[in-house]
Amino acid sequence: MSHAAESSSSSAVASTSTLVEVRDVTKTFFRGAETLEVLIHVDFHMQPGEFLALMGPSGSGKSTLLNLVAGLDQPTSGTIQVNGVEVTTMSARQLATWRSRHIGFVFQFYNLLPVLTAYQNVELPLLLTGLSKKERREHVSTALDVVGLNDRAKHYPRQLSGGESQRVGIARAIVSDPTIVLADEPTGDLDAKSADEILTLLQRLNQEFSKTIMMVTHDAHAAERAHEVMLLDKGVLRR
Amino acid sequence: MKYARLIWVNLLRNKLRTLLTVLSVCVALFLFSTLRSVITALDAATEVGSEARLMTLSATGITFLLPQAHYNRLVAVEGVRSVSWANWFGAIYIDESNFFAQFAVDAESYFAMYPELRVPEDQMEAFMAERTAAIVGNGLMRRFGWRLGQTVVLQGTFLPGDYEFTIRGVYTPDDPSLGEELFYLHYDYMYEAARDQLSPGWFILQLDDPTEAAAISQRIDAMFENSSNPTKTQTEKALNAEFITMFGNVAQLVRTIGLAVFFAILLVAANTMMMAARERVNEHGVLKALGFQNGQLFGIVLAESVVITVIGGVIGIGAAWYLFRPGNPMTSFIQGFTVRTETVWYGLVIAVVLGIVSGLVPAWQAARLSVVQALRRVA
């Protein structure tokens, strides 16, 4: 069971099995003399195996929050813990290592490297591990199997449809068996049918493989697939 | 090595651009190898020649002849073991582009003084026995595909007419910088061609003791100082060095050109790498989001740059090495003009340095990239 909270006090009682704990996080951007508060005192936590959808209009701070949880950016104030590890105090080097082990990222525009095949794209995160070539091959094959694209392993992104590219992106996100999968508008660039397939796949990952998923979306239909939906409005988190 | 494929596919991403960059580095390193070989050949030439042999020339200049009568006085100088003489023949083989040096020598005394020019005994005997015979360097034999016993016709310049020679001997120098493309003929044959109007261009003196060279030189020049044919005497080595300095500051000029080429190519390579890296800002952001460290990205971008310059370098240096291998036509103009092993190594080091320097800025930018900003570029 997850909790989206409007006040910092509610998150202070997060259970010991909490996977993600965001406490009183504020993110402010400075553009010249202008100050832009993108996230304002955000508190929430997620349990392992949860599928959380984060909704909100454009510019509400959804992607910023996702980036903070992924350790891609630092909050102006507040703390973020993932699996008991304080992310906000890590160095860039520590964060990179931590990300490679614990975060699987699914991008809106897939972000596959065009010069690599589907297989090679999925293999990328494993290059950062100590796995042998044979072990990497087994992991990639399993991940592509899960997303149903083993037969397209040798295809380049330009030879794949949008839905297939995103499935490769998902395979890349899960290949190293991360602690949490973060999906930033994973269906934002897809037609309805492909979007539905991707959402089904994410749901399956969550239900069959117990993957914890945090998905940013502005699509209410997509959000329906999640256990829990949180709404960000002008930087403020609402249930 | 895990990232080798990533580096390689990135290089092939824009094949034309990579090819052009490789070619520009290739041309630069070819020029470097060639220009440096000119310098090393000139430097080596200043070291050629014995300090135990003196060369006595006309004090007026190398193109002025000395009277044969000087021989009797030179051979009588204390400390001089033997004396020989020679002259330029200056003929053309087929056309002027086939230039090589020809010396008319007093064969017996000359070759006795030059044991470093190795000629098989039977060939030397055949040469001595025939007035129109020639001894030819092994490089020249290779260059024109001549055979032993072949007749070669040279067209005289200051001694007009066609002159037939039969190749009776092939010499091999102990050191290629001594010259592998020289053509020796009998002085008597040239003397005859000049209708007895010829005298030596220079005398060569073998000394008993090389340490006496300076004193003997002074004595000889003093001996002829007030004659109608004053002389200038110096060691063979000093004469060669002086001859090389006649080229002026060629070495400095060559170095300057080499440096200019290096910087021009550095800018080309750096620009290419900057463009390649700028196009991939989003991809670098993705790699970082996946967990690639700053240092790993730095290394990958830098390696791409080094691979390009090393490939270009290997091709350029290899081409120069092949074209200017021993016996190439250029050795007629500059003795010992070949791409030496040390030049190959210098070239490779330069290729690597070129790659590192040109890749440094884009590699640094990739390493310092903000992931969020990089991902926002497309998303």
Question: Could you please describe the fold and organization of this structure?
Answer:
The complex is a heterodimer of chains A (239) and B (379). Chain A has helices spanning 8-11, 62-69, 92-102, 118-123, 133-146, 162-174, 192-208, 220-223; strands at 3-5, 20-31, 34-46, 51-55, 77-82, 85-86, 103-106, 180-184, 212-217, 228-233, 236-238. In chain A, strand 10 (228-233) and strand 11 (236-238) form a beta hairpin. The longest helix of chain A is centred in the last third of the chain and has 17 residues, at 192-208. By secondary structure, chain A is α/β, with parallel strands linked by helices. In chain A, helix 5 (133-146) packs across helix 6 (162-174) and helix 6 packs parallel to helix 7. In chain A, the strands form two sheets. Chain A has a six-stranded mixed beta sheet with strand order 7-8-9-4-10-11. Chain A has a five-stranded antiparallel beta sheet with strand order 1-3-2-5-6. Residues 1-15 of chain A have low confidence and may be disordered. Chain A has eight helices and eleven strands. Chain B has 379 residues and is of the alpha+beta class. Chain B has helices spanning 4-11, 15-47, 70-75, 107-113, 121-128, 138-144, 187-193, 213-223, 236-245, 250-279, 281-290, 294-323, 341-368, 371-376; strands at 53-58, 80-88, 102-105, 117-118, 133-137, 151-156, 161-173, 183-186, 202-207, 231-235. In chain B, strands 1, 2, 3, 4, 5, 6, 7, 8, 9 and 10 form a ten-stranded mixed beta sheet that branches. In chain B, helix 2 (15-47) runs antiparallel to helix 10, helix 2 (15-47) packs antiparallel against helix 13 and helix 10 packs parallel to helix 13 (341-368). Chain B is elongated and about 95 Å long. The interface between A and B is medium-sized, with 29 and 25 residues.
